[in-house]
Structure formats: C-alpha cells, structure tokens
Amino acid sequence: MEKAESKEENVDLSNISLRPLELSDLDDLLVWTSDEKVATFCRWDPYTSKEDGINFIQNIATKFVWCRAICLNNRAIGCVSLSSNSDHDRRRSVELGYVLGSKYWGKGVATLVVKQVVKAAFTELEDLERVEALVDVKNVGSQRVLEKAGFQREGLLRKYVFLKGYSRDVFIFSVLSTDPHPSFP
Ligand SMILES: CC(C)(COP(=O)(O)OP(=O)(O)OC[C@H]1O[C@@H](n2cnc3c(N)ncnc32)[C@H](O)[C@@H]1OP(=O)(O)O)[C@@H](O)C(=O)NCCC(=O)NCCS
Fold first, then answer.
1. From the CB of 176, is ligand 1 less than 6 Å away?
2. Where in 38-177 does DSSP place strands (E)?
3. Partner of 41 for a Cys bridge, out of 99, 110, 114, 136, CB 3.0 to 4.6 A?
4. Confidence of residue 85 (pLDDT cuts 50, 70, 90)
5. Is the distance from the beta carbon of residue 99 to the nearest atom of ligand 1 less than 6 Å?
6. Fold observed for domain 13-176
7. pTM of the prediction?
C-alpha cells in the first residue's frame, strides 16, 4: 500500500459514522470495490459490474455477523465487517475486516472506525471474547491501524492464505474483551 498518498480532501472525523449498507449505496460502493489498488490485499477481485455490487449488498454483507457502511456525511466511503471464525464458537470469536476508498486513506478514518467497532462488538455481542484480524505482511498501513486501535500482533502465519495466485505470509492480530483498551466501555 502506498503511504498516505491522497491529501486532496480533508476529512472531519466527526462526520464519520457507521450504518447498515443499503441498496441506495450501490454507486458509492462501486467506487471502492472496483478499485484495483483497494482490492490488492482483499479476498475479492475488483468488481466489474453493478450486479457485483448488488450481490455484495444483498447476499454477502447480510451474511456477516455484523456489517456497516463507513460513511462520511452519510455517504458510504467504505465498509467494516465482523465474520465468524469457523474454528471457534461463533459467539466468542470474530474476524474483523475493513476497506476504505483510496481517496480517504491516511486521514485516520480506519483507526477511528476500528476503535468504534471493537467497542461496539464487545458491548453488543454477548459472550464475545476475541476480535482477530489477518493482515498480509506487505499491508503495512493496515497493520498500523490495528496497532493504533489496541490490537496485539500475535504472530506470523507463513504461507497461510492463498490469494490471487500465490501463498501469502500474514500477521495475526487480536484484541480480547479483557485487554486494557482506551475505547472499551
Ligand atoms: C488499510 C486501510 C483500511 C487503512 O485506512 P486508513 O484510513 O488510511 O488508516 P489510518 O489513516 O487510520 O492509519 C493508517 C496508518 O498507516 C500508516 N501507513 C499507511 N501506509 C503505510 C506504509 N506503506 N508504510 C508505513 N506506514 C503506512 C499511516 O501513516 C497511518 O499511520 P500513522 O497515523 O501512524 O501515520 C486502507 O488503506 C484500505 O482500505 N486499504 C485497502 C483494503 C485493505 O487493505 N483492508 C485491510 C485488509 S486486512
């Protein structure tokens, strides 16, 4: 990921909010889902049609344990989700994922959102003990987000994810409900 390359638009972080994705977000969602740069470290390939976006809103986002549009002035500029971890009791452990339009990178949006989501998750999801995230070793910006939001880097998983043609080394990060954390209730 290129470091904080886009400075053309200032973001007032007080105008960032989270809400469920709606079909009316389709055009905004296609801005980041069709961007190759955004998709580099993600499990999906860049979207090429409106149908891809509709499928995400109607059939994919609805299957996450928790999913919200990241909004700036109520316009969707990204998405954040919690999904169940098949190796664990789905009530106790979830995997965090997030994505933001490249225009908004490097302005503190993801860090703010991740802190809010962790707080919401441990408040709203009964029995939740652990939020984890898997990050490609090359995705330095995302690792930084997690560190700033209070996650611990637990270790390196070598050749752990096969994605877009090759096996990738990923770091695993987590935060527990019992960890001291500035954004916890
Ligand atoms: C990862 C992502 C969500 C980060 O969002 P963001 O709003 O730019 O993150 P923030 O501004 O809160 O923080 C980014 C931090 O990483 C740093 N950073 C970014 N790129 C970096 C790089 N290549 N090397 C070192 N630091 C880097 C920034 O300087 C900032 O740290 P700082 O505040 O200490 O200066 C965004 O880039 C994104 O959506 N990427 C594509 C999807 C993706 O990779 N999702 C995560 C999958 S695990």
1. no
2. 66-72, 75-84, 93-100, 130-136, 152-163, 166-176
3. 136
4. confident
5. yes
6. Aminopeptidase (3.40.630)
7. 0.93
Residue 41 Cβ inside 6 Å of ligand 1? The answer reads yes
Testing ligand 1's pocket by substitution, the residue of 5, 100, 104, 169 carrying the most ligand atoms inside 8 A of its CB is 100
Three-class secondary structure of residue 182 per DSSP: coil
**166-176 sheet: strands from edge to edge:** 16-19, 66-72, 75-84, 93-100, 130-136, 166-176, 152-163
CB 16 within 8 A of CB 71: yes
pLDDT above 90 covers a percentage of the chain that reads: 87
pLDDT at 10: 85
122 CB within 6 A, ligand 1 = no
Task: Supply the residue whose CA is at minimum distance from atom 42 of ligand 1.
Answer: 99
Closest CA to 76 of 1, 115, 23: 23
Q: Which amino acid is at 119?
A: K
Angle at 133 between CA 56 and CA 145, to 5 degrees: 95
Measured CA to CA, the distance from residue 21 to residue 148 in angstroms comes to: 26
pLDDT in tens, 4-51: 444 457 899 999 999 999 999 999 999 999 999 999 999 999 999 999
